[in-house]
């Protein structure tokens, strides 16, 4: 009996202590919440998987009565009511609580100051979590009878998987399907297919006992064209490719064949004439190490190892300079010559000042100039005829990789893509340009527009050459190109790290379709 009495007293004391601790914990949470709201300039509340709610005047309330703390916030479209049970963490501009939802379910709630620098990362993370849940609902609607075996938006640096695109593995019996989504506010919608193929390749290496049928890509409505066009030129034997276009309410599977037309322009080349232009060409082209190249719209550019210092604009004449250009007259000839001479000195493989901005500026243009001048050292089958730069043109503006259009001795076109730094998007960005070149080749547009005069150009699919310093190819390059259509012959050439001195090919790999 004595032991039972002692046990009851012990339990009673423990209960009172626990109640006191809980009470103090809730009081601490209330004090932290009150202090945060008074100090934050733009307080905002966010729950994982939901959109943030700004805590504006008259849009939220706090109720702390009877030892219970409630936070309620509302917008025109939704209301959030949570019981706060514990203060978990406080940081500069951020506070986190444990909460209880309806049905005694537990979770977490974050408040942050939207005016604080930390807010950008939190907003981006919240947006990704919100879209991940929308992506989950889309998968359940579009794949009835399939189970979502895996869904993640976490970064996986080891396997080059980005947190910007939620990825999933669907399972139905012994079959599996890879899927990837892109949120409406993603900065790089076109990058989703690169990470989708990386995800597919990773799953096929991991799921050795199950067949991964293919890849489904979910993209926002109105931003699907590039992804659909790229998928048309992937190998159909490598998987089942599908695209779903979504809005905030529903998603629809698209017919890839509806995206066969492309937006591309091919400038017509024509001989420039005029006494003023002729005089400038004679002067500038006579300078040592100066190269000239025809640009779109009748422009002519003069460069030193890829860096432009003078440009002819039809209708406005010659302009010169590096960062900013000004109109040139005959009196500027000594100044222009001095600029070219200084560029030759600073932008040299033998330069002693390798930290100089002009030496470091636009290294890809330098590598492009080297490759263009030594095409036969890269591939002996290519004609030494000067290659054309960025023709055809993209409607979307400047691209992150440089394009050269060459031709081999048989008249087959070759797309040459140049990159100095490691870039996992290189293969699919190169595919974009290859598609446009092939489009014009099939229609015999290059001959009609004056490209490669005297050459009988073939209408065959062009070759694709990817060129970069040998150590600067991304590890995923080979796996990505392996998914290309067998009609696309891909050569990957790694050049020596001293490419500024001379182009030396250190390795070459030719893409061959994977065995089924």
Outline the biggest β-sheet. Answer: 7 strands, antiparallel
First and last CA, distance? 78 Å
Give me the side-by-side strand order of the main sheet.
2-1-7-6-5-4-3
User: Helical amount among residues, as a percent range?
Assistant: 25-40%
Compute the average pLDDT.
Answer: 87
Note the overall shape: globular
* Record field, number of beta strands: 24
Question: What are the segments in which pLDDT stays under 50 over at least 5 consecutive residues?
Answer: 17-22
SS-based class: alpha+beta
Kindly summarize this structure in a few lines:
The chain is of the alpha+beta class and 516 residues long.
Describe the structure.
There is one protein chain. About 1% of the residues have low confidence. The strands form 4 sheets. The chain has a 7-stranded antiparallel sheet with strand order 2-1-7-6-5-4-3. A hairpin with a 3-residue loop joins strand 16 and strand 17. The chain contains 12 helices and 24 strands. With 516 residues, it is α+β, with helices and mostly antiparallel strands. It is globular and about 110 Å long.
Topology of helices and strands:
Elements: H1 2-39, E1 43-46, E2 53-54, E3 60-65, E4 68-74, E5 79-91, E6 94-100, E7 106-113, H2 119-142, E8 147-152, E9 167-172, E10 175-181, H3 192-206, E11 211-220, H4 225-232, E12 240-246, E13 251-253, H5 275-284, E14 290-294, E15 300-304, E16 307-313, E17 317-320, E18 326-327, H6 333-346, H7 357-360, H8 363-373, H9 375-378, E19 388-389, E20 402-407, E21 413-418, H10 426-442, H11 445-448, E22 463-469, H12 477-481, E23 490-495, E24 505-510
Parallel strand pairs: 10-11, 11-12, 21-22, 22-23
Antiparallel strand pairs: 1-2, 1-7, 3-4, 4-5, 5-6, 6-7, 8-9, 9-10, 12-13, 14-15, 15-16, 16-17, 17-18, 19-20, 20-21, 23-24
């Amino acid at each position: 009996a004595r032991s039972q009495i002692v046990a009851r007293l012990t339990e009673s004391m423990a209960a009172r202590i626990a109640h006191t601790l809980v009470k103090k914990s809730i009081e601490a949470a209330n004090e932290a919440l009150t202090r945060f709201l008074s100090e934050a300039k733009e307080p905002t509340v966010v729950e994982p998987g939901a959109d943030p709610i700004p805590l504006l005047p008259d849009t939220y309330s706090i109720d702390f009565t009877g030892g219970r703390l409630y936070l309620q916030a509302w917008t025109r479209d939704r209301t959030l009511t949570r019981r706060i049970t514990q203060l978990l963490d406080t940081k500069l501009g951020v506070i986190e609580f444990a909460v209880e939802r309806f049905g005694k379910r537990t979770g977490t709630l974050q408040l942050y100051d939207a005016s604080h620098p930390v807010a950008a990362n939190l907003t981006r993370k919240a947006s990704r979590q919100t879209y991940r849940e929308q992506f989950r609902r889309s998968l359940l609607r579009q794949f009835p009878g399939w189970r979502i075996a895996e869904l993640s938006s976490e970064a996986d640096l080891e396997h080059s998987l980005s947190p910007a695109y939620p990825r999933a593995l669907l399972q139905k019996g012994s079959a599996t399907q890879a899927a990837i989504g892109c949120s409406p506010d993603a900065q790089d919608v076109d990058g989703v297919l690169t990470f989708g193929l990386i995800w597919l390749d990773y799953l096929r290496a991991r799921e050795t006992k199950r067949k991964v049928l293919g890849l489904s890509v979910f993209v926002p409505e109105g931003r699907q064209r590039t992804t659909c066009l790229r998928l048309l030129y992937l190998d159909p034997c490598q998987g089942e490719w599908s695209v779903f276009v979504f809005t905030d309410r529903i998603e629809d599977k698209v017919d890839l064949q509806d995206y066969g037309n492309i937006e591309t322009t091919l400038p017509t080349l024509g001989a420039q004439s005029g006494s003023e232009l002729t005089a400038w060409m004679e002067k500038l082209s006579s300078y040592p190490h100066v190269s000239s190249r025809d640009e779109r719209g009748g422009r002519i550019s003069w460069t030193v190892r890829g860096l432009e210092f003078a440009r002819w604009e039809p209708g406005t004449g010659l302009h010169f300079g590096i960062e900013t250009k000004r109109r040139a007259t005959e009196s500027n000839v000594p100044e222009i010559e001095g600029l070219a001479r200084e560029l030759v000195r600073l932008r040299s493989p033998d330069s002693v000042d390798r930290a100089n901005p002009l030496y470091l500026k636009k290294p890809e243009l330098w590598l492009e100039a080297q490759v263009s001048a030594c095409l036969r050292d890269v591939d002996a089958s290519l004609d030494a005829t000067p290659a054309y730069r960025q023709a055809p043109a993209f409607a979307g503006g400047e691209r992150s990789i440089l394009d050269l259009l060459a031709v081999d001795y048989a008249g087959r076109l070759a797309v040459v893509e140049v990159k100095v730094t490691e870039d996992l998007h290189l293969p699919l960005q190169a595919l974009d340009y290859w598609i446009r070149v092939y489009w014009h080749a099939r229609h015999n547009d290059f001959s009609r527009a004056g490209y490669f005069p005297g050459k009988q150009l073939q209408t065959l699919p062009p070759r694709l050459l990817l060129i970069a310093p040998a150590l600067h190819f991304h590890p995923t390059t080979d796996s990505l190109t392996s998914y290309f259509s067998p009609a696309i012959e891909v050569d990957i050439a790694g050049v020596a790290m001293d490419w500024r001195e001379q182009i030396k090919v250190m390795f070459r790999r030719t893409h061959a379709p994977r065995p089924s």
